[in-house]
Design goal:
Radius of gyration: 33 Å
Number of strands: 0
Largest sheet: none
Low-confidence stretches: none
Distance between the termini: 84 Å
Structural class: mainly alpha
Number of domains: 1
């Protein structure tokens, strides 16, 4: 009788361990998925920041050119620069 009870308890613990193992495997898969997503988002964010930095540098150069025309009071060149430059037109939209 004790052997039968021990066997039942043993089987119950084995089943519980198997269920816990399955849950652990699911949790590990979920963590891997979240980690992969986080890595992808981090890379995308880094690329976005680099792109924005490049655009800021281009705008700074553009503003310096415009300022040079204003300082030298070259209105015609300033107007030409404003009309012909795609930088201002793209970002105005």
């Amino acid at each position: 009788m004790i052997k039968a009870q021990y066997e039942q308890v043993q089987n119950q613990y084995i089943n519980d361990l198997k269920e816990l193992d399955v849950k652990l495997a699911r949790c590990r898969d979920g963590v891997r998925l979240i980690e992969a997503r986080r890595l992808t988002e981090t890379q995308a964010f880094t690329n976005d920041i680099q792109s924005i930095k490049k655009r800021v540098i281009n705008f700074e150069r553009y503003i310096k050119r415009l300022k040079k025309h204003v300082d030298e009071e070259k209105t015609a060149e300033l107007i030409t620069e404003l009309e012909s430059t795609e930088v201002a037109q793209v970002d105005m939209n």
